[in-house]
């Protein structure tokens, strides 16, 4: 506690503003537990950048912690690029303080002699990723906490390729940040270096989204869509992109169309949660819509709900949406003629069905760690290969490589193309998904996410993962474990033969069990939230579409059994 108090006391110096000093003094005198939570560590970069609760302290998002990040990044950019002109583009979402924090970040860059393009109003994360290369910038920043609760904000850093930072840049930038004190932040802004941007970049982004996400699907005029931005940024892009692509039968949920960091109509602005799309689904049932689309606050994730075999609107999970999008893109590439250098991408905790499907098409499926920065990195690492598309279970997808992060704008258009095309052929999005299960195997997944907040929660998460490793599972629902993949040691071990093989991915705190029947269980801490996540995947053969309902029930029962076995 002495070190925490000492750290907090440094925030009483004249460098910090009066309100900050007053709050710190109050914590020192009256609230030891809250003081601990705010100062026991520095916020760190995770799988999706830096996210945290807004407030005073080293473990909070505020103008000083983000200012220190920005100063460290400025120093790093100068070290890498010397005296050449350096340009950075900044976007922000609907969250509280995002606009003022974005302005602070812009001013610090400018104080360091760096040219800044600052979006004049909130914009989507995919547009920021696009703008980095469009404006020939060396880096990009977006102020967002994605789908986290209203008290959160965050800071994601993009490199010159439009992809989030990855090794070695992330470690080198963090080293620059750690070498600084708060007093090292340059605050004397140069307004001549800050340029506001908006419609010109919007226009270029919209054109690219329509070009990459549209495939001349038939039946657009008969395809009815309900769209909700869940109070986020996608309202600035998705309605316009759909209109330009020929979708005029779009109903926007007006109660959720106004950007609002309180997210007043939902408990969580996360399209992974069925409750978040309840208002849109209700409207879809009322008007007989074919599809519901909902996006998270910064518009990189999307939830898709479609009519199921019984005619009811059903929310698909991220794996199902990813399978459908990838299958559609593979079919389109196959029509033009595959050249043999194409690849699709997914992550180690997403459905193994991606590998099975890619194999059928004779296309490679590259697998990365969780986090879209790793999928973006593949494009740079394999310049002679053509990236078709890729996604992850957490409702993110990327179409082509013009955006180097998950992109709910273009993916929404792609989902509508799939749905309209299927309906025009007398089928449906859902029926085509069932057809995929018949063709490639019926894979079904389940995610259990446990929230453990604060300092004690971090320790609890750490211990849960240690226990999961030190007390290995030997069978799952009667199927013996064959492989244990330990991404901390980069070794996959066959527990039946003792054989080992290296895991050719960066080290990560992930452990995966795989059984004889192909069931997989993965455990990892979230990189952006105080959560530990358990991913389960199992599979069965689906001989014909008529058997879907019974096999689906069998897989659900098996997944429920796994949850029970693991005491989750």
From TrEMBL:
Top-rank taxon of the source lineage equals Bacteria
Keyword Magnesium recorded: yes
CDD domains registered for this protein in UniProt: PGM2
List the keywords (alphabetical): Isomerase, Magnesium, Metal-binding, Phosphoprotein
Q: Which PROSITE patterns match?
A: PGM_PMM (PS00710)
**Cross-referenced Pfam families:** PGM_PMM_I (PF02878), PGM_PMM_II (PF02879), PGM_PMM_III (PF02880)
Task: Read off the Gene3D superfamilies from this record.
Answer: Alpha-D-Glucose-1,6-Bisphosphate, subunit A, domain 3, Alpha-D-phosphohexomutase, C-terminal domain
- Listed InterPro entries: A-D-PHexomutase_a/b/a-I (IPR005844), A-D-PHexomutase_a/b/a-I/II/III (IPR016055), A-D-PHexomutase_a/b/a-II (IPR005845), A-D-PHexomutase_a/b/a-III (IPR005846), A-D-PHexomutase_C_sf (IPR036900), A-D-PHexomutase_CS (IPR016066), Alpha-D-phosphohexomutase_SF (IPR005841)
Domain (Alpha-D-phosphohexomutase alpha/beta/alpha) ranges? 44-182, 211-305, 317-436
Q: Which GO terms describe its biological process?
A: carbohydrate metabolic process; purine ribonucleoside salvage
What cofactor does its activity depend on? Mg(2+)
Query: Which SUPFAM superfamilies does the annotation name?
Result: Phosphoglucomutase, C-terminal domain, Phosphoglucomutase, first 3 domains
Q: Which GO terms describe its molecular function?
A: magnesium ion binding; phosphopentomutase activity
Family per record: Belongs to the phosphohexose mutase family.
| Protein name from the UniProt record | Phosphoglucomutase
């Amino acid at each position: 506690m002495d070190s925490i108090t000492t750290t907090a006391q440094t925030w009483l110096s004249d460098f910090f503003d009066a309100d900050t000093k007053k709050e710190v003094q109050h914590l020192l005198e009256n609230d030891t537990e809250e003081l601990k939570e705010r100062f026991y560590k520095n916020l760190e970069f995770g799988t999706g950048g830096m996210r945290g609760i807004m407030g005073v302290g080293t473990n909070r998002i505020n103008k000083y912690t983000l200012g220190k990040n920005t100063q460290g990044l400025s120093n790093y950019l100068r070290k890498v690029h010397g005296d050449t002109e350096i340009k950075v583009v900044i976007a922000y979402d609907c969250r509280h303080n995002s606009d003022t924090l974005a302005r602070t970040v812009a001013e610090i860059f400018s104080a360091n002699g760096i040219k800044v393009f600052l979006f004049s109003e909130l914009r989507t994360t995919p547009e920021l990723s696009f703008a980095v290369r469009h404006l020939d910038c060396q880096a990009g920043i977006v102020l967002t906490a994605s789908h986290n609760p209203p008290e959160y904000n965050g800071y994601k850093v993009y490199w010159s390729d439009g992809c989030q930072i990855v090794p070695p840049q992330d470690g080198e930038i963090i080293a620059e940040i750690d070498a600084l004190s708060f007093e090292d932040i340059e605050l004397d802004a140069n307004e001549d270096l800050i340029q506001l941007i908006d419609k010109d970049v919007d226009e270029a982004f919209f054109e690219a989204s329509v070009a990459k996400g549209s495939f001349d699907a038939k039946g657009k005029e008969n395809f009815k869509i309900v769209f909700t931005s869940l109070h986020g940024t996608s309202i600035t892009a998705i309605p316009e992109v759909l209109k330009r692509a020929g979708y005029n039968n779009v109903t926007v949920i007006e109660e959720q169309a106004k950007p609002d960091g309180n997210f007043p109509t939902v408990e969580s602005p996360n399209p992974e949660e069925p409750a978040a799309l309840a208002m849109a689904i209700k409207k879809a049932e009322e008007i007989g819509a074919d599809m519901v689309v909902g996006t998270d606050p910064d518009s990189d994730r999307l939830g898709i709900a479609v009519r199921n075999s019984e005619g009811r609107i059903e929310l698909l999970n991220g794996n199902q949406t990813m399978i459908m999008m990838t299958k559609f893109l593979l079919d389109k590439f196959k029509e033009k003629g595959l050249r043999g250098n194409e690849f699709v991408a997914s992550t180690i905790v997403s459905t193994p069905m991606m590998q099975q499907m890619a194999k059928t098409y004779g296309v490679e499926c590259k697998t990365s760690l969780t986090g879209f920065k790793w999928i973006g990195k593949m494009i740079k690492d394999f310049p002679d290969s053509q990236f078709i598309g890729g996604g992850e279970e957490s409702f993110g997808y990327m179409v082509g490589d013009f955006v180097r992060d998950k992109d709910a704008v273009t993916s929404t258009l792609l989902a509508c193309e799939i749905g309209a095309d299927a309906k025009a052929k007398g089928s449906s999005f859902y029926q085509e998904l069932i057809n995929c299960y018949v063709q490639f195997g019926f894979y079904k997944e389940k995610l259990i996410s446990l929230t453990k907040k604060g300092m004690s929660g971090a320790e609890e998460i750490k211990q849960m993962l240690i226990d999961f490793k030190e007390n290995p599972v030997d069978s799952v629902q009667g199927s013996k474990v064959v492989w244990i993949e330990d991404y901390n040691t980069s070794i996959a071990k066959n527990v039946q033969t003792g054989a080992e093989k290296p895991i050719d991915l960066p080290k990560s705190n992930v452990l995966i069990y795989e059984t004889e029947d192909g069931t997989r269980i993965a455990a990892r801490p979230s990189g952006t939230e105080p959560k530990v996540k358990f991913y389960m995947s199992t599979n069965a053969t689906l001989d014909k579409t008529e058997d879907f309902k019974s096999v689906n029930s069998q897989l659900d029962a098996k997944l429920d059994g796994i949850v029970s076995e693991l005491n989750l």
